[in-house]
């Protein structure tokens, strides 16, 4: 066929627009490419997932076939491919008439697309499934007034999973690619309700600088993505990675996904993909859409004690709308109190602290009373945080320094894939939140190089209690370490073993810059250094996390664990750390640790220079 011959001579199958449309990525260890798409019906060639030329030839051949693909002419089913090939090969409309794509037009008309916005949903400190954040696209219509943005549409990529599945199962299957991932288009207000009102996550909306023809190209491709399945990987081929692949279709000269998939350890953290788009000059200044809990907390903190008490009492059915604390307030303040009471009832309902029946009745009463007040609330609106999420330190970290114990000294080298700990500069990160994975420590001395420890994952959520909000704080860590005082040695003698530490409790804010936490902790070591090959201990853990000056953080942690099973010994662990961060790329950290196991003790001091990239 003439078109096929011309396409081959022009090398179209190797051009970026084609490889972007089929989602090809270079094979990691062997020559060639493989598509990240796992649906066989997406490809028109049997070898289309690994052979760009075969897929191109089969695509062109399909345009001259009367056979429908999923009840559509091929030119409509693979519309983005058709439009690009038509623009390059200059199809003769007499020999290849263009069909009417009625189903596409019906789908695209309500979108009325003129521009795109990248939406970053921040993590929620007490939710493990939200710990890295999430990104989606908003399709902005030509009438993009502020009061109509909730009526636009969202493009979301996510895994299909059972809502009742446990967090551990969700994490394991997500890491291993055990879920199917799909694109979906839905009303934007549904996602705002899901993230900002139900999951209590702030939204940051970044306008994307794309030309109208680029937006159109992305929508054509999104139409092709209907019912197309991918294997969903929590760390690599996730929501943010797949959205980058859409933007690469819109502007094929960009290389976005390759910057993540070609790393030694391929992973794509949502906030890193936001930064990648910024580095290419694609994002504008973000708008802030706070979560319901953030707005509610800000409003409650502006109330005097007796009015604050009324909101809590009303939500708990200990007061009514006839209470003098409400009725004697000026109209604007009554409006504020009724708004706060309604929002707090909704918050308590979402946290299962009040039944639907009881909460709905009282919520309706507040709405009815509020409708009779013309004045607006007299409370000040929530102030936008000084830094957007992309303005924090980079996710990866390399460290070098010195460890000294009573007898020996060693050089320390550390490498962390991601993301943030309690001593890192908290700018633009959740206060009290820690999430790390793939954190490797090495010790270098005259005897050679030895592994100090390896933390596969480390999560901590210090969520302070106050009068209205009473979240649980918790932590979970797992990886490899030595058991006993040898874990702190500059020249360790015993072998590494697996460990899991976890616990839950409560926390309080002692000031705007200091959090105190307390846990009931459990510690399991699988190590031959422990009698019987394992040790399980339980006990209290207390600590302080503080930032007493800009870019200067402190941590004090104390833990006592008593023998519960195996070869565990009673143990006391103390840690004191501080870090000064002169810039977002550098941090100077000092720490002291002490451990005592049934009369045996050890301690060390470390000084590390951290580099964030």
Tell me the number of strands. Answer: 22
Q: How far apart, in Å, are the first and last alpha carbons?
A: 51 Å
The chain-level mean pLDDT equals: 93
Low-confidence stretches: none
Order of neighbouring strands in the sheet with most strands:
10-11-12-13-15-16-17-18-19-20-21-22
Strand content: 25-35%
Radius of gyration computed on alpha carbons: 28 Å
Helix- and strand-based class? alpha+beta
Number of helices: 17
Biggest sheet record? 12 strands, antiparallel, barrel
- What is the oligomeric state here? single chain
Helix-residue proportion: 25-40%
Query: How does the overall form come out from the CA principal axes?
Result: globular
Short description:
By secondary structure, the protein is of the alpha+beta class. The protein has 17 helices and 22 strands.
Tell me what the structure shows:
The chain has 613 residues and is of the alpha+beta class. Helices cover 27% and strands 34% of the residues. The protein is built from 17 helices and 22 strands. It has helices at 2-10, 16-21, 52-62, 74-77, 79-89, 102-108, 167-176, 188-198, 212-224, 239-250, 258-261, 270-279, 292-300, 305-315, 324-327, 331-350, 356-371; strands at 24-26, 33-35, 113-121, 134-141, 153-160, 179-187, 203-208, 230-232, 287-289, 397-404, 409-420, 433-445, 448-461, 464-465, 473-481, 497-511, 514-526, 531-549, 552-567, 571-583, 586-597, 600-612. A twelve-stranded antiparallel barrel has the order 10-11-12-13-15-16-17-18-19-20-21-22. It has a seven-stranded antiparallel β-sheet with strand order 8-6-5-4-3-7-9. A two-stranded antiparallel ribbon has the order 1-2. A hairpin with a 2-residue loop joins strand 12 and strand 13. Helix 5 crosses helix 9 (212-224), helix 14 (305-315) crosses helix 16 (331-350) and helix 16 (331-350) packs antiparallel against helix 17 (356-371). It is globular and about 90 Å long.
